[in-house]
Amino acid sequence: MTSNLFFIEKKKIDGRRMVLDGPEHHHLFRVVRSNPGDIVRLFDEDGDRYEARVETVGAGRTELVLLENLGPAERRSRILLGQALLKAKAMDLVVQKAAEFGLFAVVPILASRSVARIEEGGGKKIERWTKIAREASKQSKWGLVPRIHPALDLAAFLKSRAGGLTFFLSENDGRPLRDVVLARADRPPAEAAALIGPEGGWTGEEEALMIAAGYEAVSLGRAILRAETAALSAAAILSHFWIS
User: What's the fold here for domain 5-72?
Assistant: First the structure.
């Protein structure tokens, strides 16, 4: 679907002057075919949104005039998804849908049963996932790009977080996720973290570690879902009741 929402780097906003180049200029010029005088909306890496008027459309760049700073889009709840590292296509899908559902952040977790591997720091993959999230955010009109954090092992992740509602999906036990969500549907938590396991599921030791850190085991039902299916199901439920 063609969108009139565009991503602009904050450094390319100078007072009331704004410049689009690269893929975003191509999208405006070749796909949307905007002309001088058209009004478009943009968002930057911090989630700030703008309304602007197209001034000139050149071969390599579009110049715009800022009309209004609309501020950031609002989420009722900031949901962090801790996703155990999956194979490339599955992980790309989870990141894409996390953006479409309006999640606040995604942290790749190095779990015991993760088949996929990531280079130290994960720079190239983080860059790729950020691009995927940005495009999905444009398509869904959120204008909020989930923050894609560097990969952490589970113990490091648990030490890095404090506060908010926290739970993990378990194949073995747990309160139904629907009950957790519906209990707070009228007043969603300001922050929550949901951890989703890898293709082979969490180990018993990992589940014990999460419980010791205060995470509640929750369930999506009796069916054993693929890891990416579980992530998308959980994200959809959380988005519908706590974010949208």
Answer: Ribosomal Protein L25; Chain P (2.40.240)
